[in-house]
């Protein structure tokens, strides 16, 4: 499966199959949430949240690819990511793009 954030793939003629997406809502346990809260007092990277968001993007991408594969897609073009806070310490991440088949 080819994944790109452009609306084309060089040298390929594409047939659009439709929008595909994947999403997840992730949170950290209360212990990590408290320790990361203390980190905001002194500044610096909140590594537990960075890891959480990286994991969430990977899972959302995996779910998007699974949806594309179910349509018989060869690639997903024009991939985008969106995130939103759902509550303190929890975030939704969505990956979406256009599933395509090579002609």
Automatic annotation (TrEMBL):
Coiled-coil region: none
InterPro entries linked: UPF0145_dom_sf (IPR035439), UPF0145_YbjQ-like (IPR002765)
Family: Belongs to the UPF0145 family.
HAMAP family recorded: UPF0145
Protein name as catalogued: UPF0145 protein SAMN02745243_03485
Organism: Hespellia stercorisuis DSM 15480
């Amino acid at each position: 499966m080819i994944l790109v954030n452009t609306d084309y793939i060089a040298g390929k003629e594409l047939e659009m199959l439709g929008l595909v997406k994947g999403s997840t809502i992730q949170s950290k346990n209360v212990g990590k949430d408290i320790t990361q809260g203390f980190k905001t007092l002194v500044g610096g990277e909140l590594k537990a949240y960075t890891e959480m968001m990286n994991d969430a993007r990977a899972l959302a991408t995996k779910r998007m690819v699974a949806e594309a594969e179910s349509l018989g897609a060869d690639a997903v073009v024009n991939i985008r990511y969106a995130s939103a806070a759902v509550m303190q310490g929890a975030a939704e991440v969505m990956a979406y793009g256009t599933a395509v088949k090579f002609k």
